[in-house]
Amino acid sequence: MDNANRRLQAIQRSLAPGSEWRRVLVLPDNLGVDVTVPKDAQEATQVAIDNKVVGLYRTLPRSVALVISALGTPHENTADHVPKFPVLEISSPSVIYALHTVYHVQETIPIILSPSIQNGSELTEYLITLAWPADNNPSNVRAKVTQKELFLMRETFWQGAGTSGYHTRGWLRVSTALKGRAPFPYVQSFTRTDLVIASHPLRPPKPPGRGDDETVGRHLAAFHKWHNSDHVNRGWGERGPIEKHREYIKNAMADPAVQPLMMSWDGELMGYCEIVWIKENHVAPYVPEGARDYDRGLHVLVGEEKLRGTLRSTTCQRPKTKRYQYFSGSPHECPNDI
Question: Which residue range or ranges hold the Acyltransferase MbtK/IucB-like conserved domain (predicted)?
């Protein structure tokens, strides 16, 4: 009976005045994805799954290119070979699979979310977590939500569904160990800073920081005290006023290649460490035979004198930070620990 009803709905839809539909995709559960064929550029395209309209998209009167090289130089936007594509405004994430098929000759598809989407900020963060889109400024904090274009990448097609929250169907069967997150795909990216020029894979978003204003203030005060001690300054060279250290932490939190962490021993603040992606770090040139794509590094300081020593440092670093480095890495290759 259900199949008969679907066929009748398809017939009715095909006979509806002013609408021409075409099949663009069949999902893993054998449901079809159809789109309307607009009569002019101003008309929105409807997307239907199983004969039910799930969203629409429209082409905006502007085109953009995904710039991922020569960042921070006078040549950042001068390359003629980088193709520009029209920006699409989408009303639902359900239309994205259709976009990958309709625009199958494009390596990137620039989109923005329609203002009518009530949970636009949440949805943007969700899409970035899946690595569906890259934003058009790779140096930005990846969780920062703006109205800038997001670029759908062809490499992330398989990551698009099968994830809890918005989708229940997809080709990838997500392991329960990943807690509903699809494996992060390989997408080429670049970093350019005063100390680093490197190509590397796009990194997964970092977990958000935790703590109220009082906790953050306490952590900053400890960080400031430690860096003004002779013991820490000999290794880190960051002695200075608290404004300098506030800016240091702000930059570390904004850097997609650095995960800053505070260390405690029995609830007492002990030190600070940074888990880094080596390729985007200033130590990369010193790695014998060169850093690999998924090599991780660890910069550590133990600021409290009474908590220093091999026993405590080893206890903190090995089971905690190394476990985090391993499980936050990538399925593409086993990372080295540097």
Answer: 210-259
Q: Which residue has the tokens 């097609």?
A: 157
Q: Tell me: the pLDDT tens digits for 252-292?
A: 988 889 999 998 888 899 999 999 999 999 999 999 989 99
Residue showing tokens 């935790």: 210
Instruction: Yes or no: say if 161 and 128 are a contact pair by the CB < 8 Å rule.
Output: no
Q: Which pLDDT belongs to residue 111?
A: 92
Residue 330 in contact with residue 336, Cβ under 8 Å?
no
48 burial (CB, 10 Å; 0-12 / 13-18 / 19+) is: buried
Give all strands (DSSP E) within the chain, no chain letters.
Answer: 21-26, 32-36, 45-49, 52-64, 85-90, 108-113, 133-135, 150-153, 188-192, 197-201, 258-265, 268-277, 296-302
Q: CA–CA separation, 87 vs 64, rounded Å?
A: 7
Structure confidence at residue 277 (pLDDT): 93
Residues in CB range of 131: below 8 A, 6 or more apart? 153, 156, 159, 184, 185, 187, 202, 204
Residues 6+ apart with CB under 8 A from 322: 298, 337
| Interval 54-65 mean pLDDT | 90
3-state secondary structure of 250: helix
CATH 3.40.630.30 assigned to domain 213-327? The reply is: yes
Sheet containing strand 108-113, edge to edge, reads 21-26, 32-36, 45-49, 52-64, 85-90, 108-113, 150-153, 133-135
